[in-house]
Amino acid sequence: MKCRDATFLASQALDRKLSLGERLSLEAHLFICAHCKRFGRQIGFLRKLGKEAPPDQE
Amino acid sequence: MSTPQQQAEIAGYRDYLLRYALYKLRDETLAEDAVQETLIAALQAHDNFAGNASIKTWLTGILKHKIVDTQRRAARDPLLLDSRADEESDRADLDTLFDSTGHWGSDAPREWDRPEAALENRAFWQTYKECATRLPKRTALVFAMRESLGYEIEDICHNLDITATNCSVLLYRARMSLRICLEKNWFGSTSS
C-alpha cells in the first residue's frame, strides 16, 4: 500500500467501519510508515478540535 | 405566544446565538439567517418551553436544528453547485502531496509538539479558525457536519445529496488541508 491510499483509508476509518482487508492493509502500512502513523494521530486530533472548539470564541 | 418580557429575554441571547451559529456555519449571512429563524421560532413557541431546561439551552437546541436546515439549503444553493464542487470531491490535486510512487513528498507530516497543550491556548484556536476558514465552502460544510455536529456519513450524504465517496473525499480534503495549515502556522513555529 502507498501513502496516498493509506492516508485516504486512515481518514475513512474515522467515518465508517473498514472491511477486514482494508483494516489489515492499513495496519500493515502504519506499522512500517512513521509519516502515515503521524497523519493518523493528527487527524484524530482534528476530530477533537471539531468537538471541543469553543463556540463562544471571538 | 410570548409576553414582551419573554420577548426581551429571548432577544437578549441573540449575540450568543449568533456567535454559536457563526462558529458552526462559518458564514455571516447563513448564521444571521439561522439565528433569525431561531428567534422567530422561539417567540412563536414560547409556550413549548418546558422551563426545566435553561432558556439558553432551549434556544441553542432550536438553533442547532435551524443550522442543519440552513446547511441543507446552502448545499442546494446553485452558487455552491458550480464546477468547483466537482473539483472539491476529486482528490487528484491532493496527489501532488505525494511523489510519483505514491509516497510522501515535501509535505510529509512532522511530529507535533504537545498538541494537547494547544487546546488551552486562545491563539491556537484563532489559528485553527483561520485554517478552517480557508477550506472550500462545501469541504468546510461537510467537515463541520461530521466533526462538530457529529453526523454520520449517511446523514451527510442524504442532507447534501452527494455520494458516500464524494463525502469521504471532502472529509479527506478537509483533514489534509487543516493538518497542513496547522503544521505550517502553529506546530511548525512552536516546535523545535
Question: How would you explain this protein's 3D organization?
Answer:
The complex is a heterodimer of chains A (58) and B (192). With 58 residues, chain A is mostly helical. Chain A contains 3 helices and no strands. Chain A has helices spanning 3-12, 20-32, 34-52. In chain A, helix 2 (20-32) packs across helix 3 (34-52). In chain B, helix 2 (14-25) packs across helix 3, helix 3 (28-44) crosses helix 4 (55-76) and helix 8 (137-148) packs across helix 10. The longest helix of chain B is centred in the last third of the chain and has 27 residues, at 164-190. The termini of chain B are far apart. The chains are: A mainly alpha (58), B mainly alpha (192). Chains A and B meet through helix 1 and helix 3 of A and helix 2, helix 7, helix 8 and helix 10 of B.
Distance between the termini of chain B: 60 Å
Helix content of chain B: 55-70%
Total helix count of chain B? 10
Total beta-strand segments of chain B: 0
| Shape label of chain A | globular
Question: How is the topology of this model organized?
Answer:
The complex is a heterodimer of chains A (58) and B (192).
Chain A lengths: L2 H10 L7 H13 L1 H19 L6
Helix pairs in contact in A: 1-2, 1-3, 2-3
Chain B lengths: L3 H8 L2 H12 L2 H17 L10 H22 L6 H6 L26 H4 L3 H12 L3 H12 L4 H8 L3 H27 L2
Which features would summarize this protein structure in a list?
heterodimer; A: 58 residues; mainly alpha; 3 helices; 72% helix; 0% strand; globular; B: 192 residues; 10 helices; 67% helix; elongated
In summary, what is this structure?
The complex is a heterodimer of chains A (58) and B (192). With 58 residues, chain A is mainly alpha-helical.
